[in-house]
Design goal:
Oligomer: heterodimer
Radius of gyration of chain A: 32 Å
Strand content of chain B: 15-25%
Mean pLDDT of chain B: 86
Low-confidence stretches of chain B: 1-12, 54-58
Structural class of chain A: mainly alpha
Mean pLDDT of chain A: 83
Shape of chain A: elongated
Strand content of chain A: under 5%
Helix content of chain B: 25-40%
Order of helices and strands of chain B: HEEEEEHEHEHEEH
Structural class of chain B: alpha+beta
Helix content of chain A: 55-70%
Chain lengths: 176, 209
Amino acid sequence: MSPSTTASTVPAAPVWRGRKARAVSWALVAVVVVSVLAFGTFAGRGAQSAGERAHALAEEIACPQCAGESVAQSQAPAAVNIYGEIVRQVDAGRTDDEIRSYLANQFGEDILLRPSATGPSALIWVIPVVAAVIAAAALGATFRRWNRTAEVTATDEDKVLVESYLATRHGEGDGR
Amino acid sequence: MTVDSTSTVADPPPPPGPPAAPPRAAPSHAARWSAIAVGVVLVGLMAVFVAGLGGDSDGPITASPLDGRAAPELAGTGLDGGTVDLTHYRGSWVVVNFFATWCPPCVQEHPELISFSSRHQAAGDAVLLSVVFNDETANVASFFAAQGGTWPVLVDDDGSAAVGWAVTGVPESVLVAPNGIVVGKIKGGVTADALDGIINDLERQADGG
């Protein structure tokens, strides 16, 4: 079947229908993205035993005696001591934030593998978000500019100019 | 061979001519300002990074988050079964020395600690307080019996003192001023002369010298 046949037999979908379908697609994409992010963020945060909580916290604390290892991974004496302290504080009913802030207070913020969202460390969280917002805004502005360019239409005056120019060109060609 | 028609357009006919290209929009300054903003941010970040690198140590003393703060609590059972409590030594300089018998630099610095302790024993102006770091009490008792040393030794069975004092390895010595404020940490082995030198310097600074 030729394209022209198709074009003549299939009625064009109304514009609003296309827009609606596109909006639904975007909404579906948004739902999927939000669901995946929410699942990744909150999965496994349900009821944890004290041991699981301590281990999860130990994974967020850097071993101060070794490079690139968390307290949960390392068997270095300093890491073993910190792990023990986390277990004691969990058993004593301290919250995760209290335990993190105690360790950061003693050893310095560098011991937190996941930097805190306050103070200068917050820049680590803020900068990517600001960069993403700026990038999205720049992208949006660019798309708008492109659309504006596409909307330019030729006026009657433009058409007359073009036709007269083409006529001149044709005349030159004939005279050659 | 064909000749490009544009080469013949030298003669005058052109009245209408091709439509003039639309005038380019006035150049926006957005790009320039964006570049300047990005540059300023980068310079700022580099300044923060460089500032973070510098000023980390002053001689053998290492910067520690505990500096300038009241000494963390340090009390418990001593090697001899008695009570050891840092607050009992308020009014004297205290060298809180974390050590283990399995640590060669700790064994190596022990004679220096004996020397430091002896120098100040009579005056009582500076005392040593050792804390056992991840070691068996029996090993430490044998070690002191064999090597000497009569200063108080705190048993830190659960490692909580080491965490409270932010110990990252041994030997580590934390210097506590007579007013109970932490003034510095020395990572690695120490000598009696180095300890005295640090204390003298700090006293001179305190006196405004």
